[in-house]
Structures are given as structure tokens and as C-alpha cells.
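Postdoc handover notes: sequence design on the structure in folder B. Input C-alpha cells:
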């Protein structure tokens, strides 16, 4: 059976909707090329200029080219602060006037940990380019009592198994599945620090992300690899924030991109059944959300639409 026939090819070529789609993509590419962002290395450097990227990996490569170091040295970026402030992490979008600070790999360290309770007290996120790192440490938890482990540390290995290239929910599940009473080893890589001024309180709570809810335009990285300029609404910002809180409570992960994907799946749905079907028919299905959790997510979406969510 042929992969396509000539009629379909001709129809696609002449389809006005497809032509308009191509025109729209050309416009987005032109906009992307015209945007220029300022950046610095968090530990100190001259100011650089980066442009022409449509996803996080491309952004990292542009930064690496600017400063002449390998892109895999970048652990994560923060917006508008050189400090390791986890409330200012670069996620799936950047405000058009945001300043990017780049945090690079520092020294590695290995810590042997005894799992004396079911929960380690970690919230894990990833940089969108294959590195998972610690976003939050719960006070009085197992990890909080180990002074060598800090917010911002990249989880490179669990025992001898590499975590590079894995998603944060995979790493969180592996840590959760380690039996209570076991002893395991974490190999971590900390970001380069520029003195004590970069250290934030370990238990500091997440505040409003600089790219959300302030009415300014943002460059948004889409899941399909495209980038487009959007204006965030107060409704969507509150809904995405709340969904991210639910993800942290359920999975021990923090991911605004994932929360945004979930929000978008429910944005035009009329009921929870349609929303659940949209989740099941997407790559979000691999997260294995329960029916109860789907209902909880749907409740957040409907509350946000109705203006019932508070900051």
C-alpha cells in the first residue's frame, strides 16, 4: 500500500488552510529571528545577546555559542536574577523583556543516603534538555538533614544508574520506589556559585513567576517544537499555577510546561469526560493519572475559568 497518493498531495498543496498554516509558520520564524534576549553567566560574565531559538535546547546552544563552552554544561537558567531562585526558573516561556542568567555545572559530589522514611522530601524539576535537578527541599525531611545536598543540584546518578536524559517524573518515581530501610548513593552536580549571595533559603516558597500573569507578551515554547508570542491571561496563570501545585503533591515534581500542557488540554473542553479523553490520547497518558486526579484537575480548570481561584 503506498504511503500517499497523488490526489492527496495535490489537495494538500492547494488547500488554503495549509497555505495559511505555512504562512503563519513563516511569520513565527521571522518573529523568532527578530527577538534578541540579553544573558549573563550567573557566576559573572560580560552580557551576551542570544536570538533565533524556538525551544530550550536551541536556547542553550545559542548561549553556549555566545560564551564558547559546550551546551551540556548548562544546568538551568533563571530570569531576571543571578541567584539560584527557584521561583524565577526559565520554563516553557520567556517574557520579551526578561534577562536570562545561565547556571553552569560546578563540582560533582556523591552522598550515601539511608532511606529511613517513605518520603525523601524532594521536589524535582528538569531543564528541558535532559537534566533533572532539585527545586525544593522539605523542611525536617531526610534530605533537609543532609547539609551537602542543596536546591539546584543536578541528579546525575542514582547508585550507578544514569539519570541524564530522563524526565523528572521518572527520577521522582525511582527515588520513591527505593524501599524504606535501604541505603543508596546519589551523585549530584552543583551549579557554579559566585559566593554566598547566590544561596536562597532551602525551604523558600514559590512566588509568582516573572513570565506569568502580568499582562506582558511572552515567547512561548510549544510542545510541537514551534515558538510563538502570546499574552498570558490572569485566568490561565492561576490555573497553571494550581495544576503545578497538584503535580508536586502527587508526583513530587514541578513543571510549568507540563502544567501548561494539561491546562491546554482542558481549555476548550465542556466536561470532564472530554478532558479525560484528551489526556488519554496524548503523551500525558504515560503519567498514569487516576480518575480521581483527572477530576481534581478538571475542578481547577473550571474554577479558574469562573474566576474562583485566588493567587
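Designed sequence:
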Amino acid at each position: 500500500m503506498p504511503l500517499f497518493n497523488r490526489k492527496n498531495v495535490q489537495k494538500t498543496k492547494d488547500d488554503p488552510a495549509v497555505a495559511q498554516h505555512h504562512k503563519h509558520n513563516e511569520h513565527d520564524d521571522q518573529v523568532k529571528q527578530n527577538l534578541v534576549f540579553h544573558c549573563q553567566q550567573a557566576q559573572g560574565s560580560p552580557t551576551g545577546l542570544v536570538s533565533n531559538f524556538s525551544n530550550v535546547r536551541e536556547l542553550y546552544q545559542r548561549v553556549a555559542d555566545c560564551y564558547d563552552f559546550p551546551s551540556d554544561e548548562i544546568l538551568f537558567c533563571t530570569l531576571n536574577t543571578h541567584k539560584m531562585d527557584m521561583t524565577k526558573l526559565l520554563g516553557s516561556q520567556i517574557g520579551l523583556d526578561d534577562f536570562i542568567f545561565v547556571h553552569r555545572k560546578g563540582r560533582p559530589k556523591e552522598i550515601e543516603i539511608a532511606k529511613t522514611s517513605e518520603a525523601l522530601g524532594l521536589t524535582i524539576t528538569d531543564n528541558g534538555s535532559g537534566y533533572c535537578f532539585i527545586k525544593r527541599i522539605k523542611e525536617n525531611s531526610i534530605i533537609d538533614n543532609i547539609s551537602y545536598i542543596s536546591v539546584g543540584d543536578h541528579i546525575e546518578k542514582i547508585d550507578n544508574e544514569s539519570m541524564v536524559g530522563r524526565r523528572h517524573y521518572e527520577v521522582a518515581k525511582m527515588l520513591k520506589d527505593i524501599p524504606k530501610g535501604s541505603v543508596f548513593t546519589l551523585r549530584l552536580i552543583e551549579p557554579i556559585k559566585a559566593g554566598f549571595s547566590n544561596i536562597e533559603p532551602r525551604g523558600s516558597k514559590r512566588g509568582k513567576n516573572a513570565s506569568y500573569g502580568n499582562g506582558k507578551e511572552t515567547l512561548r515554547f510549544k510542545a510541537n517544537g514551534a515558538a510563538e508570542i502570546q499574552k498570558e491571561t490572569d485566568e490561565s496563570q492561576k490555573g497553571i499555577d494550581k495544576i503545578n501545585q497538584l503535580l508536586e503533591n502527587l508526583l513530587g515534581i514541578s513543571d510549568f510546561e507540563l502544567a501548561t500542557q494539561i491546562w491546554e488540554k482542558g481549555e476548550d473542553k465542556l466536561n470532564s469526560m472530554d478532558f479525560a479523553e484528551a489526556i488519554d490520547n496524548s503523551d500525558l497518558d504515560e503519567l498514569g493519572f487516576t480518575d480521581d486526579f483527572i477530576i481534581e484537575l478538571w475542578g481547577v480548570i473550571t474554577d479558574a475559568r469562573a474566576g474562583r481561584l485566588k493567587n
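Context for whoever picks this up: The first helix runs from residue 6 to 14. Don't rerun without checking with the PI first.
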